[in-house]
Fold this sequence. Notes:
The protein has 170 residues and is an alpha+beta fold. It has helices at residues 3-10, 14-17, 71-79, 120-140, 150-169, and strands spanning 21-28, 33-39, 41-46, 49-54, 60-67, 82-88, 95-99, 102-106, 108-115. The chain has a 5-stranded antiparallel β-sheet with strand order 3-4-5-9-6, covered by helices on one side. Strands 1-2 form a two-stranded antiparallel sheet.
Amino acid sequence: MNKRNQKRSQSPSPLERGGGEVLNIGVIGAGGFAAFAIKAFLQLQFEKGEINLYEWIPVKMKLNGLLQKDHLKRLEELMGNLSVVHLDKPSVTDQKVQGRFNDIFFNEHVTIEYGNASEKQNRYSNMLIAMMQDQWNWIKDQSHERIIDDNNAVNSLRMAEQATEIAQKF
């Protein structure tokens, strides 16, 4: 095994890094090379549950958590069209669990989903239109302060390098 393959076998998988799940899409061409896609998601974990945001630009959210009795109503008011996938109301009100050495009281264990992957095309399209409009405004009037310029690329690269360094420490 050469050094490159040895290093590759020691690096954590995307799942171990928390960067997404690797899906086997299928076999491409006669050469038998498998194609892989990385489904991006961001998982935020809290004492009372977790939130998963899906896609590079989040268009779908899944929340799994412990809520007080009025929290679900408030979420429905704020978010509108959410879907309750799982709702467990324990027979005992004000259940108590420990999280980070603190007591957590809850009335409901819930899993909700919000958004839809089909919204991705519209979201990306709107972003592209806004970026092009911003560039066009700058072309017409160079005193216009652009939202996206060459500094964005440099800053994005800098953040990616920092994220890679942090990920490699784990």
